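Lecture notes, continued. The same structure-token format from the folding unit now serves as the input rather than the output. Read the line below as a description of shape only.
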């Protein structure tokens, strides 16, 4: 169970351990501490603030009436708190991160150094264009690389993430359809059943109806299945390639041709572009729009509360509808076109207030420049090689839903091999934590029952892959031997034990409140 603060209350219900054997609850370097709200002092703070002068608030009835309720800590206490939190987290700098479909790629330190250079790190979105020519030149060069690598015509850099890029690409498609006067008729978007969940959500968000395309028995989409659904109301298809099962779509060119013949558009989810960079250009395959997750393909940090970037490349058919702002050559250097009226084409509008995340642009271009075309191609080849090495090392113990055949950058297993063991996919994933690994993606894609999607990325050495495979084999053999106790309550050695995830999702505790004081028993 969880108490009012959402914390474990006893060992059996998910506490740290039944008995650490220490007075503090610490286990050597694994430091235990109370919540920051429990340890902080509300009457003091580690920073001195001057009393504000008289002023007239402009918040009206929205002004705070009570204390803000933030705990005061000294600088050492604050530092220790966040360092200890970081030690409880798992990241790509900690060990192999096999999260499938999300591509936890190593963030090279060279890229980080470049992003911290003055002029890039300090650039402000409201600076005069004349003072940011270097930043605009970098954005222009990044655009050139993205267009060249994808075989497309133009790129919109401004989307802030993959899903935001999806929205941008689909809005460009919608604008193109409206420009042809077909906005009232072309209202349906085809989405394969193995797609990322953001695909149908994006299409629905901007007013399209979604029609599901079934996957074939081998996990791919067949052109005939698409043709059976194409009609005069078809606006586009949203297809991931390589797809979410880790497989290259063999009939993608035929699918694109069928869509184009019907007057529709081809949107490609570029989440897995890292598997084909330097090997295949989406534009050559018939793609009209594709977002690119810079964190997945070009090693910028993954998430982190806001530093995302999801540029969208557009074909010649959609390039005129790219949103503002965008960089273009001018008489006295590069200029930033910020308003639709100043554009020569027909931008569908603006998708974000400012242009984008400069730090991500710098990191991505640094990755491209340091690797070169041959290096990026090798990275794709190594990612595919590593995934197949893991697949081959586990195929005799773990079942593959679409047969024993080569995959792209990620290997997909299902849970049929766990039948009658008493161990579920979730149990297996939790036990991986005890072995020092972040679990792979589980229960996705939905087309594989109890899915386990493993992606090692290209940066892992053979020795790290061998250890991972050996650990997975040990767990698989333990499950098959019936050692269910090793899995049922795992993880045992993490800073926190397993929580009731269903209850946490349905009854989240979103605000910490002080516990009621405990009464002493009467004598």
């Amino acid at each position: 169970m969880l108490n009012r603060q959402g914390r474990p209350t006893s060992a059996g219900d998910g506490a740290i351990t039944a008995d650490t054997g220490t007075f503090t609850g610490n286990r050597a370097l694994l430091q235990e501490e109370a919540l920051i709200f429990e340890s902080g002092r509300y009457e003091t703070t580690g920073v001195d603030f001057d009393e504000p002068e008289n002023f007239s608030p402009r918040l009206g009835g929205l002004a705070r009436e009570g204390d803000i309720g933030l705990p005061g800590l000294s600088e050492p206490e604050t530092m220790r708190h966040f360092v200890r939190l970081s030690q409880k987290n798992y990241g790509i700098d900690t060990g192999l991160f096999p999260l499938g479909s999300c591509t936890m790629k190593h963030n090279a330190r060279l890229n980080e150094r470049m992003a911290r250079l003055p002029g890039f790190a300090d650039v402000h979105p409201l600076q005069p264009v004349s003072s940011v020519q270097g930043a605009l030149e970098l954005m222009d060069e990044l655009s050139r690389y993205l267009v060249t690598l994808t075989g497309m015509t133009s790129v919109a850099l401004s989307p802030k993430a993959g899903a935001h890029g999806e929205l941008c690409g689909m809005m460009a498609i919608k604008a193109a359809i409206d420009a042809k006067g077909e906005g009232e008729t072309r209202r349906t978007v085809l989405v394969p059943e193995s797609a990322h969940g953001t695909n149908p959500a994006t299409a629905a968000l901007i007013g399209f109806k979604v029609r599901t395309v079934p996957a074939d028995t081998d996990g791919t989409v067949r052109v005939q299945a698409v043709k059976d659904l194409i009609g005069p109301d078809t606006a586009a298809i949203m297809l991931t390639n390589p797809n979410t099962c880790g497989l290259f779509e063999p009939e993608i060119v035929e699918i694109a041709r069928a869509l184009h013949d019907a007057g529709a558009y081809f949107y490609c989810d570029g989440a897995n572009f890292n598997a084909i960079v330097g090997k295949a250009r989406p534009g050559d395959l018939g793609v009209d729009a594709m977002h690119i997750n810079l964190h997945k393909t070009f090693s910028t940090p993954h998430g982190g509360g806001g530093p995302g970037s999801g540029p969208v490349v557009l074909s010649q058919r959609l390039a005129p509808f790219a949103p503002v702002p965008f960089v273009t050559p001018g008489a006295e250097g590069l200029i930033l076109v910020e308003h639709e009226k100043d554009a020569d084409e027909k931008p569908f509008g603006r998708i974000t207030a400012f242009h984008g995340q400069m730090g991500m642009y710098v990191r991505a271009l640094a990755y491209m420049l340091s690797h070169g075309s041959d290096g990026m191609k090798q990275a794709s080849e190594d990612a595919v090689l590593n995934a197949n090495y893991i697949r081959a090392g586990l195929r005799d113990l773990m079942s593959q839903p679409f047969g024993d055949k080569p995959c792209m950058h990620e290997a997909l297993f299902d849970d049929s091999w766990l039948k009658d063991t008493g161990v579920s996919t979730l149990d297996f994933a939790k036990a991986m934590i005890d072995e020092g690994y972040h679990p792979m993606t589980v229960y996705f894609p939905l087309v594989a029952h109890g899915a386990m999607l493993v992606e090692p990325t290209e940066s892992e050495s053979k020795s790290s892959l061998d250890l991972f495979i050996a650990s997975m084999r040990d767990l698989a053999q333990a499950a098959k031997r019936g050692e269910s106790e090793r899995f049922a309550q795992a993880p045992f050695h993490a800073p926190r034990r397993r929580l009731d995830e269903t209850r946490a999702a349905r009854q989240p505790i979103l605000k910490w409140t002080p516990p009621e004081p405990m009464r002493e028993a009467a004598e």
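Point for the exam: Residues 276 and 378 are 10 Å apart (CA to CA).
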